[in-house]
Design brief:
There is one protein chain. The chain has eleven helices and 21 strands. The chain has about 475 residues and is an alpha/beta fold. Strands 8-7-6-9-10-11-12 form a seven-stranded mixed sheet. A seven-stranded mixed sheet has the order 17-16-15-18-19-21-20, sandwiched between helices. The termini are far apart.
Length: about 475
């Protein structure tokens, strides 16, 4: 078999970066062709080494800054540009919000092709650092070496790592010194675990060979101050597990809920495995507007607690509940939106794919003395049917909060036959939301659009749309 010929890609000099683009990149134009360049901002003028060339676009990396944009800000994280997260640290937050608003407008217009009202400016997060309530760190037997380290030459130590995966590299892990995404004691716990494992000869996982004891650590920090830590091991090495768990208990008595998992599979997913509560409660509590929400080791909860409250307030406002409505909360998760809205509705019906999440939703209703909710587990396209609507009552309002893939067309058909007066569509992916709005457009008019920023310094944006049935 012939060896593929090595490509000689061009060096583009003095390329002006003119606008932001998808997935945290920015772009300029060279000979009428789009050039995507990560880690740049509009106004930069750069020399770019092209690394990938297609018919309609090119991708490259900066090799020299001819002129730095006046918009540019100094990133606050020493891992910026390497770990793959927080790609917009070099851009003022006001500009991030402006682009997220434009991103929503572009996708709803270009993909949905529906009539839109004026889109409200993206609702910013009060916290732009330490805003996440959940992080997962990965162990690796050899840390990722940065390009700067390699270029410097000399002998380089390849010690073990505990940190984040390098983008698009399942087997490469960047060792993290300090992360600005989650409040303490997150960094302290991660550092203590790594040092204990090094001091006591614990092996770190090699995912290609599937060897090494230490695999992952998950840290959850609730708005109530409660903390959950889950440590994932590659084998049931009981003495070593007990020693590490005891160290965490003694060093961090503030940990509310301490778990471990033994995962002998080749992949890192642990949702199907037993989570063993080693010490403390089997859950932590989140709180929102006087309501309490139980969060177990497998529970989903929005990862920006404070901004989740703002998101749900928008959804409730758009639902315009007067107290007598039947409300369906589809893709309800652990019933957060359902319970958040229950006191303004006569009846709330929640549907979710994950059975454990539905059990949490029921518990959340019970601990908040909410008696007008009903929850059902199953695949949405199988559960939601004309018969289901007949049995549970015709909805006056439906709230949709689907995964990134959006809503199955069969589900939308059932919704349109049920013909609620209002639909509130919460989406983490405005592109699939736009596709679904195009289907609903024959019966529903979009009357309000509110983007919400859940993840500062990233390109991700949530969007809430209010639809009203046409006369």
């Amino acid at each position: 078999m012939a060896r593929r010929k090595k490509q000689n890609y061009p060096l583009i000099e003095a390329l002006e970066i003119t606008t932001l683009a998808a997935e945290g990149k920015a772009m300029g134009r060279y000979n009428e062709q789009v050039v995507f360049v990560p880690m740049t901002v509009p106004g930069d003028v750069v020399d770019v080494q092209i690394r990938n060339k297609r018919r309609r676009f090119m991708e490259g990396v900066v090799v020299n800054y001819v002129k730095r944009s006046p918009l540019r800000e100094e990133p606050f994280c020493p891992h910026f540009g390497v770990c793959g997260g927080c790609k917009w640290q070099n851009l003022p937050y006001s500009e991030q919000l402006r682009f997220k608003t434009e991103q929503v407008r572009d996708q709803l217009t270009r993909i949905g092709k529906v009539a839109l009202p004026e889109i409200k400016p993206c609702l910013g997060s009060a916290k732009q650092q330490f805003y996440r309530n959940k992080l997962e760190f990965t162990f690796a037997d050899k840390r990722w070496l940065t390009y700067e380290e390699i270029a410097a030459g000399g002998d380089i130590e390849r010690e073990p790592a505990l940190g984040f995966h390098i983008p698009n590299c399942f087997d490469k892990v960047l060792d993290i010194d300090e992360c600005f995404l989650q409040a303490e004691p997150s960094n302290a716990i991660r550092t203590a675990v790594k040092q204990f494992c090094l001091d006591n000869g614990y092996s770190f996982h090699n995912c290609r060979e599937h060897q090494g004891l230490m695999r992952n650590i998950i840290i959850r920090t609730a708005s109530t101050g409660e903390i959950m830590v889950i440590v994932v091991f590659n084998e049931d090495a009981r003495e070593k597990i007990v020693a590490l768990m005891d160290m965490l208990s003694e060093r961090f008595p503030e940990i509310t809920s301490l778990f471990y998992v033994v995962n002998t599979k080749w992949n890192d997913s642990v949702g199907d495995l037993e989570h063993i509560c080693y010490r403390g409660k089997d859950h932590i509590i989140e709180q929102m507007e006087g309501l309490q929400f139980k969060v177990g080791p497998k529970s989903f909860y929005q990862t920006n607690s404070a901004q989740a409250y703002e998101l749900y307030k928008v959804a409730r406002e758009f639902a315009d509940l007067q107290g007598a409505e039947v409300l369906y909360d589809l893709y309800t998760g652990t019933g957060t939106i359902a319970n958040f809205c229950a006191r303004q509705a006569a009846k709330v019906v929640g549907v979710e794919y994950v059975p454990e999440a539905i059990e949490d939703a029921k518990v959340n209703s019970a601990i908040n003395s909410i008696a007008n909710t009903s929850f059902y587990a199953g695949d949405m396209k199988d559960v939601l049917s004309d018969e289901f609507v007949e049995q549970n009552g015709k909805p006056d309002v439906i709230i949709l909060d689907p995964p990134r893939a959006g809503v199955d067309e069969r589900v939308l058909e059932v919704i349109m036959r049920a013909a609620p007066e209002r639909i509130v569509y919460v989406s983490c992916n405005p592109a699939t939301q736009a596709r679904d709005l195009a289907i609903l457009d024959s019966m529903y008019e979009v009357v309000a659009v509110q983007p919400v920023d859940m993840f500062p310094h990233t390109h991700h944006v949530e969007n809430v749309v209010k639809l009203v049935r046409r006369a």
